[in-house]
Amino acid sequence: MRRFGKELVVLFLLVLMAFGGCTKKEEAKDAGPKKYVVGILLKDLSNTFVKLLGDSFNARAAELSGELTIIVQDAGGDISKAIQQAEDMITQQVDALILNPQDYEGCAPIVDMALEAGIPIVECNATTNNVSKISYVGSDDVDAGRIQAEFLKTKLKPGARVTYLMGPIGISAQIERKEGIYKYLFDDPEWKIELLAEQTANWRSDEAMTLSENWLTAYNNNIDAIICQNDEMAIGALEAAEAKGIKDKIVIIGIDAIASALKAVKEGRLDATVFQDGAGQAREALNMTLELLKTGQKKIPDRWIPFVLVTQENVDQFM
Fold first, then answer.
1. Bridge partners of residue 71, in order along the sequence
2. What is the mean pLDDT of the chain?
3. Which of 1, 9, 204, 237 would bridge with 212, disulfide CB 3.0–4.6 Å?
4. Among 110, 158, 6, which Cα is nearest to 14's?
């Protein structure tokens, strides 16, 4: 009887273990796949194009809601704030980071911090000097300068007098768009373009308008083109030229194809812009991040989304 009793106890324990095992398997099954948390560091949501990036990240994250959630932070153009936000996200142990850097050099420590913590990081739209270590999604800013140059060669004559409005000095887009316009226009010996002035307007329409007003006054309105590294500055330059009643004499071109610029192109006020697919960049950045997380890879090939010239002839395709 004692032996039979022991056998019953053993059998009872085996049943409990089997039942418990099934319960754990069911719980694991119900839990489903891991849902990742991705931190997104945006440089300045007051900028129209960066706002587009932010909206597009939210839209893509909603589509991927079964696989990830995002935490979006806005550095407001402050590099030290961006670094602090990155530190906070790393402390929170996010699964991955997406960085839209304010500055080529200044935001580079964020990449090192993430890699040291073993957190995958993707740069989007702009780069730091650490991009060789990580994956990148964006557009070739040198090519944006080339596209502007080729358009301007259809509108200007050799020896034309131009001014050049740039983004914040030191950001990758400022550096590379300048490289493109110099290579394909300013340094072209056949064109002998006279660059009267170049200065940053920090992507801002109001600063661009003030600078353009000053240049137009200083050069007695004798400027053939105002070339702008983004559309917000192009709108500022356009308003300055229109205020003086001389827009018809000046070619103005921007980059990004934001809504106000597209409207101005359609109306024939702004000569051209260069479309940058911010929604496509945000989508691919999240896709790439998810791929890194699922595969455990440290880096995958960069993904390039082409720029496209926008004029009055094709503007309806982008509106």
1. 39
2. 91
3. 237
4. 6
The residue among 55, 112, 114 whose CA lies nearest residue 89 is 114
**In this structure, what are the phi and psi dihedrals at residue 171, rounded to the nearest 5 degrees?**
-80, 150
Q: What is the pTM of this model?
A: 0.84
Residues 113-147: pLDDT tens digits? 999 999 999 999 999 999 889 999 999 999 999 99
**Intervals of CATH 3.40.50.2300 along the chain:** 36-138+278-305, 141-275
The pLDDT, as a whole number, for residue 233 is: 98
Superfamily of domain 141-275: Response regulator (3.40.50.2300)
DSSP line for 21-75: HHHHHHHHHHH-SPPEEEEEEES-TTSHHHHHHHHHHHHHHHHTTTTEEEEEEE-
How far is C-alpha 295 from the chain's CA centre?
Answer: 24
For 136-192, the pLDDT digits (tens) are: 999 999 999 999 999 999 999 999 999 999 999 999 999 999 999 999 999 999 999
**CATH node for 36-138+278-305:** 3.40.50.2300
211 burial type by CB count under 10 A (0-12 exposed, 13-18 middle, 19+ buried): buried
CA dist., res. 143 & res. 47, Å (int)? 22
Kindly give, in sequence order, each residue whose CB lies less than 8 Å from that of residue 227, ignoring residues fewer than 6 positions away: 148, 152, 162, 163, 164, 165, 181, 252, 253
Query: Which of 125, 106, 145 has its CA nearest to residue 47?
Result: 125
